[in-house]
Design brief:
Helix content is 51%, strand content 0%. With 123 residues, it is mostly helical.
Length: 123
């Protein structure tokens, strides 16, 4: 009887602990509550994102894919011709998806689309 109680108690404890080890990205689950799809500017939203996510591979004479994203003009051209949007919206596992470290958040993808719709200005 005591052994049965001990086993049940142990299994209950393991179940409680393992069910509490759950993780999801809060932004994907609940949104950011921020301003993801109404305004986006080059200097506040897009340039910092490009600097941290893209320029490491896409700059200078040896830019990956011959795409240099180190200036506003080159990012603007890539955005307006649709190639930047195409690459950031591809699903994980697609060899052409960018950045290769994993997709941008839904919020950051929305900011790029908003910036594109506004003409991809250097604001």
């Amino acid at each position: 009887m005591l052994r049965t109680f001990s086993v049940i108690f142990l299994l209950t404890g393991v179940a409680a602990i393992s069910s509490s080890c759950y993780y999801d990205n809060a932004e994907q689950l609940y949104g950011t509550g921020g301003n993801c799809d109404s305004t986006a500017t080059w200097s506040v939203d897009i340039q910092p994102m490009i600097q941290t996510q893209c320029v490491g591979c896409h700059q200078g004479a040896s830019a990956s894919g011959d795409l240099d994203l180190s200036s506003h003009a080159s990012v603007q051209a890539s955005t307006l011709n649709g190639s930047l949007i195409d690459r950031i919206q591809r699903g994980a596992g697609d060899p052409l998806a960018m950045p290769p470290s994993g997709p941008l958040s839904n919020c950051n993808q929305a900011k790029v689309r908003v910036w594109e719709r506004g003409g991809a200005l250097p604001n």
